[in-house]
Design goal:
Helix content is 45%, strand content 15%. With 255 residues, it is an alpha/beta fold. It is elongated, with a radius of gyration of 21 Å.
Length: 255
């Protein structure tokens, strides 16, 4: 969808980009158009859900993955300070909102108020600053490196980077570096009438957990790649959610 340049908000009335260049955007817009065409051709009712960024996200191009790779290899994280970030939603909240929509809107016969047989529903998220991304990566990496160094499950034991009981000066700290220039569209928020109608509010604590889970997946991917490359082989294309679930002990289901 296109951002309202005056308010920097994506909402239900925003329209899709013309001639998008990002593959993800192209696929999303094409999927919506195909769904709309299918509803017309077969005369069936279709609700298309337009999701905001959902976490955990194990895409290696996601911001968390890049931050994690830099933290491992460069011991630094470049981030945008201030009001720059992404609207995010955890999968569990996304599932909760979808169930509420089905119960209170779709089954109540309110999905197509204009009499058509196609509806596009925008699923919103809470704006999460890149500073939070960087903080989550630095703290999670600290925990993972302590676990790798000492063994056990220090994360579950509640050890954090403010706890000196497991301080190890041989682990080089990760430095946060402020990025000088950031595109203005990273200030964009997301709003939806649906969340107001259903009295829905995303859980910021869950979003942070989703970022942490994304970081753990990126950590596993990077270490696996390094170890396999050292052996002179090509890393397998394993589904990272399996690795994530085994590593973090957190549920990633929600939809």
């Amino acid at each position: 969808m296109v951002i309202d340049s005056t308010s920097m908000v994506v909402n239900d009335d925003s329209y899709n980009k013309i001639d998008p260049t990002v593959a993800y955007e192209m696929a999303k817009i094409e999927a919506e158009e195909n769904a709309k065409q299918l509803a017309e051709e077969l005369d069936i009712s279709i609700v298309f859900f337009d999701w905001i960024n959902v976490v955990p996200n194990v895409d290696p191009e996601f911001s968390i993955a890049k931050m994690t790779r830099d933290a491992i290899n460069k011991r630094s994280i470049v981030y945008s300070k201030g009001e720059y970030g992404h609207p995010l939603l955890h999968t569990r909240d996304a599932g909760r909102l979808l169930v509420a929509y089905c119960q209170q809107v779709f089954l109540a016969g309110k999905a197509f108020p204009d009499g058509s047989n196609f509806a596009c529903v925008l699923i919103p998220g809470n704006f999460t600053r890149f500073a939070v991304f960087a903080d989550v990566v630095r703290n999670t990496l600290f925990e993972l490196e302590l676990e790798e160094r000492y063994g056990g499950t220090l994360v579950e034991a509640g050890v954090s980077n403010t706890n000196n009981s497991h301080r190890d000066d041989s682990i080089k700290p990760v430095v946060l570096i402020e990025q000088k220039d950031t595109p203005g569209h990273f200030k964009t928020r997301c709003e939806s009438r649906l969340s107001d109608e259903l009295d829905f509010e995303a859980d910021d604590a869950l979003i942070r957990e989703g970022l942490r889970e994304s970081c753990i997946a990126a950590w596993n991917r990077e270490l696996l790649t390094q170890r396999v490359n050292t052996a002179g082989n090509t890393p397998p294309a394993a589904p990272m959610f399996d690795v994530l679930s085994a590593s973090s002990g957190a549920s990633t289901s929600g939809l």
